[in-house]
Amino acid sequence: MDGILPLWKPMGLTSHDCVFKIRKMLRTKKVGHTGTLDPDVEGVLPICLGKATKIAEYITDAGKVYEGEVTLGFSTTTEDASGDVVESNKVDRNISIEEIKTVLQSLTGEIEQTPPMYSAVKVNGKRLYEYARAGILVDRPSRKVNIYDLTLFNESISAKDGLVSFAFRVHCSKGTYIRTLSVMIGEKLGFPAHMSKLTRVASADFTVNDCVTFDTLERIIEEGKLADIIYPLEKGISHLPIYQLDDNLALKVKNGAVLTKPKTWPEGEVVMTYHDMALAIYQAHPEKENVIKPVKVLRNENI
């Protein structure tokens, strides 16, 4: 069983919980997810099966799209609605749509973020959330992430009892903390803030429309139609450049051979394809000029 199962992760489960559940449902061990989603977040979670686990990191590294909500008026320990209140400051002025749009535009591009204390980032061998639960504050390494697009969603603002909320849509790189982005939006508007809602609506080339729920998956398995919802591993690396192979090169590539660099070789990592089947991922040799080498061999069976 090789391929990608686009799962709609429900609230209440971790990404690891989903992998464990699918292993039992499909009675297979080679299962992996493609990017952690917090338990209180639902959304697109591509699950890799069999040989497709080899390309899980490429889906994880590809961009994600989220739809979320920022609430101004108080911040929390976890930077989302589940945490304890850290700072409270009621919104005492009108905040316009134009002002919000200006702030969102200012956070588009490459930005620097400090991971929240309640996160899985490791410092000195321990997860930050382990320090947080023990009440220990540690220095956290900042990281640069890319915000490709950040827009106001629905163009409406909700104001009640000194709290102001509005929805946003963001297309961002791997490693972006949307909780922290929500706090940054609040800071630029002059108020403590937190992320009050979040849904992942796309991961790499997988969207809401591709996904199945656990209930649907269970029914499909009972009907013996699992193959109808499994995507080939090629879809998970469709954002990479492709190099088409002839019969001779295909045999060499599936065996992981080092090859002479073609004249028309794209930059970065390239999918080596034979009759629409991805055999391997290659890159320019880091030490030898005019040579390419395999990063990963995906298939080495008879072709």
Provide keyphrases for this structure.
globular, Pseudouridine synthase, PsdUridine_synth_N, five-stranded mixed beta sheet, alpha+beta, Archaeosine Trna-guanine Transglycosylase, Chain: A, domain 4, 3 domains, 303 residues, tRNA pseudouridine synthase B, nine-stranded mixed beta sheet
Would you give an account of this structure?
It is a single chain. With 303 residues, this protein is α+β, with helices and mostly antiparallel strands. The chain has 3 domains: 3-62 and 204-235, Pseudouridine synthase, CATH 3.30.2350; 64-199, Pseudouridine synthase (2-Layer Sandwich); 240-297, PUA domain (Archaeosine Trna-guanine Transglycosylase, Chain: A, domain 4, Roll), CATH 2.30.130.10. Helix content is 21%, strand content 36%. It has 7 helices and 18 strands. The protein has helices at 15-26, 56-61, 97-106, 128-133, 178-189, 214-223, 247-254; strands spanning 3-9, 31-33, 42-49, 64-72, 74-76, 85-88, 109-113, 122-123, 126-127, 143-160, 163-172, 193-203, 206-207, 242-244, 259-260, 270-274, 277-284, 291-297. Strands 1, 2, 3, 4, 7, 10, 11, 12 and 13 form a 9-stranded mixed β-sheet that branches. Strands 14-16-17-18-15 form a 5-stranded mixed β-sheet, covered by helices on one side. A hairpin with a 2-residue loop joins strand 12 and strand 13. The longest helix has 12 residues, at 15-26. It is globular, with a radius of gyration of 22 Å. The two termini are 18 Å apart. The mean pLDDT is 93.
